[in-house]
Design a protein that fits this description.
The protein is an alpha+beta fold. It contains four helices and six strands, in the order H-H-E-E-H-E-E-E-E-H. The radius of gyration is 15 Å and the shape is globular.
C-alpha cells in the first residue's frame, strides 16, 4: 500500500478510538495485532495480542481512566507510521489528572494496523495513578 493510504489507515484508527467504536476499531486491525505498552505496575502495561487482547486492553482502559488522545503529526516510511501526539485525562481510582506526550510506532500491512509500539511518558501516568497517603483525591 502507499504511504498515504497507510497514514489514512492510522488516522482512521485514532478517529475510531476517539469515537469509542470498538467494532470499527477491530475492522481496522489485523487479527494478530500486537500492541506494546511500556511500564510496570499499571493496568495497561504489557504486550496485548490479537482481537481478544485488544478488546481486553480497551475494556481495562475504560475502567481505569478517562482520556482524550490528540494525534498531532504523522511521519511515514514504507509500512511504518510514527504518530506524535498528546493524551490528557485522569485516573479514575485517584481522580488525578495527567498529560502524556507520546509517539506511537504503527506498522500497517494490507490496509490493517498490525503492530503498535507506544513510547509514552510512563512517569506522568504513574504519578497520576499513585494514591496519596489519605487515599483517592
Amino acid at each position: 500500500m502507499s504511504i498515504e493510504k497507510n497514514i489514512q489507515t492510522v488516522k482512521d484508527f485514532f478517529a475510531t478510538i476517539g469515537r469509542g467504536d470498538r467494532d470499527g476499531l477491530l475492522a481496522l486491525v489485523g487479527e494478530d495485532i500486537e500492541w506494546i505498552i511500556p511500564g510496570e505496575d499499571w493496568p495497561l502495561a504489557g504486550t496485548h495480542r490479537g482481537h481478544a487482547g485488544l478488546a481486553d486492553l480497551l475494556e481495562t482502559a475504560s475502567k481505569t481512566m478517562e482520556t482524550s488522545t490528540e494525534p498531532r503529526e504523522y511521519v511515514a516510511q514504507g509500512d511504518r507510521v510514527l504518530v506524535v501526539g498528546v493524551a490528557t485525562g485522569k485516573i479514575k481510582a485517584t481522580n488525578k489528572p495527567f498529560k502524556d506526550d507520546w509517539v506511537f510506532a504503527v506498522t500497517v500491512r494490507n490496509g490493517k494496523v498490525m503492530k503498535i509500539r507506544e513510547y509514552i511518558d510512563t512517569q506522568a501516568v504513574a504519578r497520576a495513578s499513585k494514591m496519596d497517603a489519605s487515599g483517592p483525591a
